[in-house]
Write a structure and sequence with these properties.
The protein has about 180 residues and is of the alpha+beta class. It is built from 7 helices and 7 strands. Helices cover about 40% and strands about 30% of the residues. The chain is globular and about 40 Å long.
């Protein structure tokens, strides 16, 4: 009996660690793919990004890690794979505060909470042509996050982030900013 409890406990610890690092795994697995835009914002640039909007100001002030990735999703198989991978990341450890499914098209806002604050925000969009995710790690007000999700204020943050960094997706020079 004690042995079974110990095995279950070890399994839970291992699975919780692997799900915590899965955003890292996804980012690292796809950042070098063809036609991918991958941005990981260093701490010194976070203050520059807070000028995007008042909502971003409230998010950026408490952000420790900010990543954005845009990737091609032009085939049904690729879209399905990306949707499955994102579902695996959010799995049981995130709470979905918003989801819109339209066949394989996805718009999902998920959060991870600890006590009375939101620690992680993951916004995933896929329109069968391109997919993207925007990831925040920090300390956020859950009421503000749910309000932003309800009012669809997360939808344009990724493109605004790219514009603020003066990156043009149509250029041949793909930019990746890494910590």
């Amino acid at each position: 009996m004690l042995k079974n409890v110990l095995l279950i406990f070890i399994f839970l610890i291992i699975s919780s660690c692997s799900s915590y690092n899965s955003i890292d795994s996804f980012y690292n697995a796809h950042k070098n793919d063809n036609h991918v835009t991958a941005v990981r914002v260093p701490h010194f640039m976070l203050s520059l990004l807070s000028n995007i909007s008042p909502e971003m100001q409230s998010l950026i002030g408490n952000t420790r890690d900010l990543r954005y990735m845009q990737f091609p999703s032009e085939t049904s198989e690729k879209t399905s794979l990306l949707n499955t991978q994102m579902n695996g990341i959010t799995g049981n450890s995130f709470i979905e505060v918003y989801r819109k499914n339209d066949n394989q098209k996805r718009n999902v806002v998920s959060i991870r909470e600890k006590k009375n604050s939101v620690k992680e925000i993951l916004i995933y969009n896929n329109n069968n042509q391109t997919g993207s995710f925007l990831y925040f790690n920090g300390n956020f007000d859950p009421v503000k996050v749910r309000e932003m999700a309800k009012n669809n204020q997360f939808e344009n943050i990724g493109s605004n982030l790219i514009n603020q960094l003066n990156y043009s997706p149509s250029s041949n020079n793909k930019t990746t900013i890494e910590n």
